[in-house]
Amino acid sequence: MSAESPIRFGILGCAEIARKISRAITLAPNATLYAVGSRSIDKATAFARANNFPPNARIYGSYDALLDDPDVDAVYVPLPTSLHIQWAVVAAQKKKHILLEKPVALNVAEFDRIVEACESNGVQLMDGTMWMHHPRTAKMCEFLSDANRFGQLKTIHTCFTFAADPDFLKNDIRVKPDLDAHGALGDAGWYCIRAILWANNYELPKTVVALRGPILNEAGVILSCGASLHWEDGKVGTFHCSFLSSLTMDITAIGTKGTLHASGFIIPHREKEASFSVASETGFDEFVTSWVPPPSDHIVTTDLPQEALMVTEFSSLVGIVKSGSTPEKKWPILSRKTQLVLDAVKASIKKGFDPIPIEY
């Protein structure tokens, strides 16, 4: 198989998010839906039919059967976080490249085992943080890297909240301690943490302190929380994530010379365009009634949605590995740093909001 041939994807499980990624694989020019596996053959068959799998797609009644298929190049793993350690390791051992849904693991020790399995078997690993692959993200990064317009980063604030319905708060896997024990911190906070690290060139903070007042359900799963991240040079990042508030996805990065705002940074307001605004060396007019110069708005368009761009980039990396190169290590490193901070937030909550030192 040449590097130019489409990467053949198998999907492990029929989670709701797998519908979105199935569509993304269909849209990606270098990938194809090849197989789906579920613990129920009927469920797998229905999923394939509902999500436009090709007529010759392979349907499996177990995850093992899909992973044993020698023609599957890569797998997308949207299983509950508690199952990642088991099935990602098995997938790596079966030489399958892995697109792993976030959060990647229950803790960094588990993720290290996944990484070790991928490295020892020469397979590519990437997590499913879709917004990283939107062209808006690269454009925003250009501004943050511009010493003349943005200056030096001083602080960054991020939030991701949505108002979950009563059925979600009672029955969704993201509120079950045995399935997705991170709750809102893993589901929504992951994106906030990644954005903070992204704005700071992925330099890890020295300490992490959970904010007081987290809301937990009866099973002890986080429904709402926040934290502050602190660097030795005085930079501070804060975030808030929640299943209990109106839909909001914002970044505010403030530098010595400029400010960046982005709304809908995780999922753009519109599929094929995304916006952000910047202000640089802005002040007030004579009567302090307006900003001079005013912030400028920027719209970035894309033919493919960000999840299809993610699949395209992942598939390109897989193709490079299949042609004889070694896997790209950037993505597992970013996953690990995000997981480290997530773990520290949980530890700070558990220890009465004490500062938790971060060591890579």
TrEMBL record:
Record's keyword terms, sorted: Oxidoreductase
Coiled-coil ranges per UniProt: none
Residue stretches making up the GFO/IDH/MocA-like oxidoreductase domain: 146-260
Enzyme class, broadest EC rank: oxidoreductase
Pfam families the UniProt entry points to: GFO_IDH_MocA (PF01408), GFO_IDH_MocA_C3 (PF22725)
Any one GO molecular function term: nucleotide binding
Family membership: Belongs to the Gfo/Idh/MocA family.
Designated name of the protein: Putative D-xylose 1-dehydrogenase (NADP(+))
Organism: Rosa chinensis
Taxonomic lineage from the root: Eukaryota, Viridiplantae, Streptophyta, Embryophyta, Tracheophyta
